[in-house]
Amino acid sequence: MDRVIRIGTRESQLALWQAHQVRDLLTAQGYSTELVPIKSEGDIDLVTPLYEIGVQGIFTKSLDLALLNNRIDVAVHSLKDVPTQLPKQIVPAAVLQRGPVKDLLVYKSNTDFLDQADYIANIATSSVRRKAQWLRKYPHHQLHNLRGNVNTRLQKLAAENWDGAIFAVAGLERINIRPANSIDLDWMLPAPAQGAIVVVCREDDAFCREACVLFNHDETALTTNIERDFLRTLMGGCTTPISAYAYIQNNTVHFSGELCSLDGSQFFSTTREVPLDKAHALGQEAAQDIMAQGGAEIVAQIRNVK
Predict the structure, then answer these.
(1) What is the set of domains in the chain, with CATH numbers?
(2) Measured in Å, how far apart are the chain's first and last C-alpha atoms?
(3) Looking at 43, 81, 103, 229, which residue is catalytic?
(4) Residue (of 160, 116, 158) closest to 141 by Cα position
(5) Is 43 part of the annotated catalytic residue set?
(6) Are 248 and 278 in contact (CB under 8 A)?
(7) Which long-range contacts (CB under 8 A, 24 or more apart) does 284-292 make?
């Protein structure tokens, strides 16, 4: 194992934490590694809303190019940021065991405003999914764009006159910066593959594929693939208000999926339970159910907005 595996990663604290997890897993198997931080477009432009950038792959494109140009050997991504269609010659090498999947609200002083029907709260997030779900529950609230890594977003929340901001639990807890003034949003269904980390490599790199498959977590790989199939079938990306979560219990796959209009006023959902050995088409079938309910019209509306 004389070859050194160059691990590409974004430069944020959270991205580096993820890359270190992969490095430790490879090192435990006897492989030599080197971290290669690379700045992504999503880290450079922190002002333009994601949906205006044409976000498809914005957090992964720079690493994909470095991979194809042989500057790195593997790239580490938050799986929810990865387009459902990978670039040619790039393949998943491993999906790590999933972490927390929920979203949370970090609030300024208290959460009394959540129960005040006449109070117009100011809530920050740049996630189209989170905006739509929040407006569905609190249609009178005002939503604001909030970009940057988790540290930057927490700093911006502290500086602005907002009541709160929405984050992924995994992002804050993994680097131990979850504030005490935060609550889990149990009613908010997560983004497809939220809380999961994926390692990708070049398709023809058998060495790296063999190294990474040793720590692939089969259950996480299966359930996130179902969620991403749901997303793909609805023609969605991380700028569409699509939510999905699958988990396995007693050899049964439990799935929940949602599609909202951008303003949260229209909403379609589906829940399914299927035997583990018959779950290969679960994501597509659930998406087709959403489309049949009337979701096709929402998908068409979102496309026209873009």
Answers:
(1) 4-97+195-216 (3.40.190.10), 103-184 (3.40.190.10), 231-305 (3.30.160.40)
(2) 48
(3) 81
(4) 116
(5) no
(6) no
(7) 284/229, 284/230, 284/233, 286/230, 286/244, 286/255, 286/257, 287/229, 287/230, 287/231, 287/232, 287/233, 287/234, 287/257, 288/233, 290/234, 290/257, 290/259, 291/234
Contact 298, 291 (CB under 8 A): no
Buried b (16+ CB within 10 A) or exposed e, 31-65: bebeebebebebbeeeeeebbeeebebbbbebbbe
190 is written with which tokens?
């997560």
State how far the Cα of 137 lies from the Cα of 152, in Å rounded to an integer: 27
Composition of the chain by helix, strand, coil, percent to 5? 40, 25, 35
Strand partners, 200: 75, 92
Other CB atoms within a 10 A radius of the CB of residue 249 amount to: 9
Residue 139 CB burial class (10 angstroms; 0-12, 13-18, ≥19)? exposed
CB atoms within 10 A of CB 84: 19
Q: How is residue 208 written in tokens? A: 């790296």
Q: What is the pLDDT of residues 90-102, one digit of tens each?
A: 999 999 999 999 9
Q: Give helix then strand counts, H and E, for the chain.
A: 11, 13
Tokens of 104: 């949370």
pLDDT in tens, 66-114: 999 999 999 999 999 999 989 999 999 999 999 999 999 999 999 999 9
Sole residue written with tokens 């790239």: 75
